[in-house]
């Protein structure tokens, strides 16, 4: 896993874009985003089929406060089915997030999320028939790869500092998402 991340970051280093400027005046010609151009949409999608089936959908909308700082909100939906234990659940919730870009492509990220899950007894594994909210605070680092003027792929590695035995995923968290 460690070698994969190192190779991934090295690959992205060689595939970076340079700043656009006028060759005669050496002035930056890339216009600054205004109004609606600061709003972005994105999210991720995950699919897995087999003994363990998962369908994940995480749309988000954000706003670029500055060239180096983004904030936004998002939704979280996860359908999970375990054929071995004959169990399925719909997990849903929301999040607020921020990203601070240290360089044009490397960023620090943080989220606060709350997820609604089916409650279970952690000692017996039996479900209680009620639903509870689980809070999470994933913090981490990421890499943005520009694929056009507005379209980007985000690769993040995060750690949920509020991880509990009922959190529906484990640490570390590796995500690939898209923004436009």
Could you characterize what this model shows?
- By secondary structure, the chain is mainly beta.
- Helices cover 7% and strands 58% of the residues.
- The chain has one helix and nine strands, in the order αβββββββββ.
- It has one helix at residues 2-14; strands at 39-48, 52-66, 69-82, 87-101, 106-120, 127-136, 138-146, 152-160, 173-179.
- The chain has an eight-stranded antiparallel beta barrel with strand order 1-2-3-4-5-7-8-9.
- A hairpin with a 2-residue loop joins strand 2 and strand 3 (69-82).
- The longest helix has 13 residues, at 2-14.
Briefly characterize the structure.
The protein is mainly β. 7% of the residues lie in helices and 58% in strands. It has one domain: Porin (Beta Barrel).
